[in-house]
Write a structure and sequence with these properties.
The chain has 677 residues and is α+β, with helices and mostly antiparallel strands. It has six domains: 61 residues, Helix Hairpins (Orthogonal Bundle); 227 residues, D-amino Acid Aminotransferase, Chain A, domain 1; 83 residues, Beta Barrel (OB fold (Dihydrolipoamide Acetyltransferase, E2P)), CATH 2.40.50.140; 74 residues, 5' to 3' exonuclease, C-terminal subdomain (DNA polymerase, domain 1); 83 residues, DNA polymerase, domain 1; 77 residues, BRCT domain (Rossmann fold). The chain contains 24 helices and 26 strands. Strands 14, 15, 16, 18, 19, 21 and 22 form a seven-stranded antiparallel sheet that branches. It has a five-stranded mixed sheet with strand order 2-13-10-3-9. Strands 5-4-7-8 form a four-stranded antiparallel sheet. The chain is elongated. It binds ligand D41. Ligand D41 binds next to strand 3, strand 8 and strand 10.
Length: 677
């Protein structure tokens, strides 16, 4: 290196330090201090110098993170200090046994409290990194604990792994152990990229991380969003060693490693249990997958006294969370028919405990999903339930496919009424064409009709509707109004009194409003709000029924799809005769006067905020809507007025900022009273 000018050398070292520091701030602390463009500029300067003086380019240069020449294969390395495995605990009882065994061995009293370090257990790939005089010289997989593979070049591409330790008081020889993983966000981006390139997506973050580390071409590894949390030290040659595992983690952080921020030092086993509950609740919010918690006796001297059995330390244990994926058998696929006729395949599974609950059913969504999974009845399948998400089938385990496994055929006829099942071009959902002739759709339609925001028939629950339809007592919503006490008495859990109560609430529901009635009809895509706008705009049912599609399209919030559904619904003679029967039975409402004065708020958008004291929010909303206003959930420049009840917060502030008219609750009720006819 004699021919390199002193100044260039100095500048080169400074650039390396600077890049390493920014890399640390960005990838380890997640707190960058310069923009990416500035980082790129520094990197180019470094590469320029290396281009001119190639002999400078060393393995610890930040420019090497992009990967190098492809390898022919990985060589094996033996771990000087074996990488131990972990015993598992699955219950509180396993945990107290663990604590008791430790105290017995250490001849401590039952009430003594051990200091434990609690660490989230990352679901990634365990690795060992060796640093000599502060420089990363070797990275290896754990392998079987004694022999692993040399993945040094791949490890160098991982930005959260220091190529050179920070500070000066590090051991002359240090082996760091940690878990390499891919974050949820990194995984999603990686898979999006794969899909765009027409490649097969990865199954899960763990597989993606393992596959990325196994690349012979480190340039590929460099493009993968790998990260590492350090969790312990193996070989350690220094003047002095810290006296606890917790302090050791602090040192590793000082030397530039990423340490999980949820790691805690606690006293005693009860605190470990509390930590478990807290972390389990946090699990779904983490941006990486964890499969449990590792508890470690913190005191290194105590660790030494405890030693290990077979290949696992006596001073550590992994408490597993309930698995989020399990294997079970697909027993059958049933097809359910919904209110709009949508035919949904539902998998019946051999019950399996997964994600903390027993799962016996999983939705298969639609025909495309069945085709994508390529599953057969009889297959062993992987079921996943993460957090509160509904259980999903991830895939079939093809190696376990039994002889005689039956491919799933999407039915061409409705399983309930035998009408044909059709799939409109461009839609994923297949539907039964039976309409209200279909028992399944009838049941759903009646349940919807009776629901609170529709006709609000008290006491007519889902079970009772099923029963009434199955017994042949009703075929449509109109039949509800013909029911007699004698027909009801004797039905399951139905005595004279409850029968009379039901008939009373059916009778009471006859007095309704036009918006509620329009909603109750169950026209596809016509929800509560659309029912209200239709009523406001057309004033009477007759006008809605007769409205040509062009007129419907003029209504705010009614698009071509909804307009089509409305026209189709009223073109169907069955629907019209049901409406007629309902009116003959006495269902009635007040038409809405179309003159301007009855809709004083037409075209206006109002926002309610805070907690109203003199009326419910639903009531206030009803009143506003009946005057033609639209009631929105958030304040924008389009808002005409907000009602700020006690407890109003950010929406009030925003309205003030936008100089929107603000009414107090008192002013609002005064306004309503004035508007009353
Ligand atoms: O997060 C992890 N996956 C993790 C794994 C962790 N936080 N700590 C660990 N500690 C150990 C000992 C106690 C043996 C040093 C581990 C593992 N081992 C481990 N990972 C794979 C096998 C063992």
């Amino acid at each position: 290196m004699l021919n390199i000018p002193e100044l260039v050398l100095k500048r080169y070292e400074r650039l390396k330090d600077e890049l390493n520091r920014h890399n640390y701030l960005y990838y380890v602390l997640d707190d960058p201090s310069i923009p990416d463009s500035e980082y790129d500029r520094l990197m180019r300067s470094l590469q320029d110098i290396e281009g001119e003086f190639p002999e400078l380019r060393s393995a610890d240069s930040p420019s090497q993170r992009v990967g190098g020449e492809a390898l022919k294969g990985f060589s094996q390395v033996s771990h000087n200090v074996p990488m131990l495995s972990l015993d598992n605990a699955f219950s509180d009882e396993d945990m107290s046994d663990f604590d008791r065994r430790i105290k017995e061995r250490l001849k401590l009293g039952g009430s003594d409290k051990i200091a434990y370090v609690c660490e989230p257990k990352l679901d990634g790939v365990a690795v060992s990194l060796v640093y000599e005089k502060g420089l990363l010289v070797r990275g290896a997989t754990r392998g079987d604990g004694s022999v692993g593979e040399d993945i040094t070049v791949n490890v160098r591409t991982i930005n959260s792994i220091p190529l050179k330790l920070r500070g000066t008081d590090f051991p002359e020889l240090l082996e760091v152990r940690g878990e390499i993983y891919i974050s949820q966000q990194g995984f999603d981006q990686l898979n999006q990229k794969a899909l765009r390139a027409g490649d097969k997506p990865f199954v899960n973050p763990r597989n993606a991380a393992a596959g990325s580390l196994r690349q012979l071409d480190s340039k590929i590894t460099a493009t993968r969003p790998l990260e590492m949390f350090a969790y312990s030290a193996g070989q350690y040659r220094a003047q002095a060693k810290p006296d606890s595992h917790f302090k050791m983690l602090g040192n590793l952080a000082d030397w530039g490693f990423k340490i999980n921020r949820h790691i805690q030092l606690v006293e005693g086993i009860a605190a470990c249990e509390k930590y478990y509950q807290q972390l389990a609740a946090l699990r779904d919010q983490l941006d990486y997958e964890i499969d449990g918690i590792v508890y470690k006796v913190s005191d290194l001297q105590l660790q030494g006294r405890l030693g290990f059995v077979a290949k696992a330390p006596r001073w550590a244990i992994a408490r597993k969370f309930p698995a989020q994926e399990e294997m079970t058998r697909l027993l059958d696929v049933e097809f359910q028919v919904g209110r709009t006729g949508a035919v949904t395949p539902v998998a019946r599974l051999e019950p399996v405990f997964v994600g903390g609950v027993t799962v016996a059913n999983a939705t298969l969504h639609n025909a495309d999903e069945i085709a994508r999974l390529g599953i057969c009845v009889g297959d062993m399948v992987i079921v996943r339930r993460a957090g509160d998400v509904i259980p999903q089938i991830v895939k079939a385990v093809l190696e376990k496919r039994p002889v005689g496994a039956v491919p799933i055929e999407f039915p061409e006829r409705c399983p309930v009424c035998q009408s044909s099942v059709k799939r409109t071009a461009g839609e994923v959902v297949a539907r039964c064409t039976g309409g209200l002739f279909c028992g399944a759709q009838t049941k759903q339609a009646i349940k919807h009709f009776a629901s609170r925001k529709a006709m609000d028939i008290d006491g007519l629950g889902d079970k009772l509707v099923d029963l009434l339809v199955d017994q042949g007592l009703i075929y449509s919503v109109a039949d509800l109004f013909e029911l007699q006490t004698e027909q009801l008495v004797g039905l399951e859990r139905m005595a004279q009194k409850s029968a009379q109560n039901l008939l009373n609430s059916i009778a009471a529901s006859k007095q309704t409003s036009l918006p509620k009635f329009l909603f109750a009809l169950g026209i596809r895509e016509v929800g509560e709000a659309t029912g209200q706008t239709l009523a406001n705009n057309f004033g009477s049912l007759e006008s809605v029924i007769c409205a040509p599609i062009e007129e419907l399209l003029e209504v705010e919030d009614v698009g071509p799809v909804v307009a089509r559904h409305i026209v189709d619904f009223f073109n169907n003679p069955d629907n019209l005769s049901i409406i007629q029967a309902l009116r003959q039975a006495g269902v009635h409402w007040q038409n809405i006067d179309q003159t301007v004065q009855s809709l004083p708020l037409k075209g206006q958008t109002w926002v309610l905020t805070g907690t109203l004291e003199t009326m419910s929010r639903a009531e206030a909303k009803d009143r506003l809507q009946s005057m033609g206003a639209k009631v929105a959930g958030s304040v924008s420049a389009k808002t005409h007025c907000i009602v700020a009840a006690p407890g109003a917060g950010s929406k009030l502030k925003k309205a003030q900022a936008l100089a929107i008219e603000i009414l107090t609750e008192q002013q609002f009720t005064d306004f309503l009273n004035k508007e009353l006819p």
